[in-house]
Amino acid sequence: MAAKDVLGRRGEELAARYLEQQGLVILSRNWRCRHGELDLVATDSARLVVCEVKTRSSARYGGPAEAVDARKVARIRLVTNAWLKAHQVRWVPVRFDVLAVVAEPGARATVQHYEAAF
């Protein structure tokens, strides 16, 4: 497995644990369809929370959240609609969050949570 894939998996695991510590329940991890993938889908019992996780080994070239551009947002919205259909969810409030993980070698990883990021 490539180093970036290992880093990404670590970031998603840290983000999932963080969300669970905040009281959210993880419904899906790495859910895929023909349109793309959702990193984490959770609920806080009031709404569906779709989370994009971005992990970097440093913030030297900008923060991880900066990688979530308009094209990525459109893709996440499209895939969320597919998730809702696949799980036969007719209507539920949806919040889109970004979790930015910085996992520098030899240092404790940090998770920055941007609620309702888009």
Automatic annotation (TrEMBL):
Protein origin, superkingdom: Bacteria
GO MF annotations in UniProt: endonuclease activity; nucleic acid binding
Keywords per UniProt: Endonuclease, Hydrolase, Nuclease
Alphabetized SUPFAM superfamilies for the sequence: Restriction endonuclease-like
CDD domains found in the cross-reference section: PoNe_Nuclease (cd20736)
Pfam families (UniProt xref): UPF0102
InterPro entries: Restrct_endonuc-II-like, tRNA_endonuc-like_dom_sf, UPF0102_YraN-like
Family indicated by similarity: Belongs to the UPF0102 family.
PANTHER family per the UniProt record, alphabetical: UPF0102 PROTEIN YRAN
Name of the protein in question: UPF0102 protein FB388_1558
